[in-house]
Amino acid sequence: MSAAKPGLQRELEAILSDFPLPRSSRWGGLPQRSAHLFRFCKDYHCEELLTSIRASVYGEGSGSLRANLIDAPVFWITHWLRTKLDTDYLRFDRAAREDIGLERHLSVVWNETLPLDPDREAVGADLLTEPPDADDVAGALRALEAKWDVSVGELVDGGYAVMFRSRDTYRRFRDEALDLAEPGSVFEADVLDLLRPEAEFDDLVALTWNRNFDVAVTLGKILGTRAR
Q1: pTM > 0.70: yes or no
Q2: Is the pLDDT score of 130 beyond 70?
Q3: Origin, by domain of life (predicted)?
C-alpha cells in the first residue's frame, strides 16, 4: 500500500458516511463494497474517482445530484434515477422501485410547473433531445466500424450488439485493446468487461455493450475518440 492510500481511503469513507443507508436498504452493502474495491485502485485512479464523486455529490454541475434531482422535471428525475440505479450490483426492477417509493420523496412546486418563460421551456425541451453522450457514442461506433468492419445493432434497452465477422478479427481487437491498459488498473478491468463475448457462432463473435459506459467511455478510450 502506498503512503497516500490511507488518506485517499479516509476521504472516500468520509463521503460515504455523509450519505448513510438504512440497514434494510437493497443497496446497503454497496458502500462497503465500494470501499473494498477502492483499495485495489492505483493512487491516480483513486484521485480521479474522488474528484468525480465530489463533483457529483457536492457540486452543482450538469452531472451532479443537485442539478438532476432538485428543481428538475419529474420525468427527468425518474429517467435519471433509472439510468444511475440500474447497475450490475442490483437491477432496478419492480421490487427495487417499490422499495424506493419514489412518490414518497417527490414534492412539486406547483406555481412553477407551467412553462411561462423561454428558459423553462428549454428545460422541458431537453427531455426530448438526444442524451448528452450521443456524440461520444456515435463517434466511438463510427471509429469501430471503420477500423474493424464490425456489424453494430441497437438493442431495445438502448445498448448495442456488436458482431465481429471472424475470431481472428476479434482477437486482434482484443489484443490491441489490452495493450492500451496498464495491468491491474481500473481501465484494464473495464476493457476486460468490454471484451467478454456474449455468444460465438462458428467463426463469428458477438458482444453486447451498454451505451453510457461501455461504448461512450471504454470503447472511446480504446479507439481514441475519448481521452484516457
Answers
A1: no
A2: no
A3: Bacteria
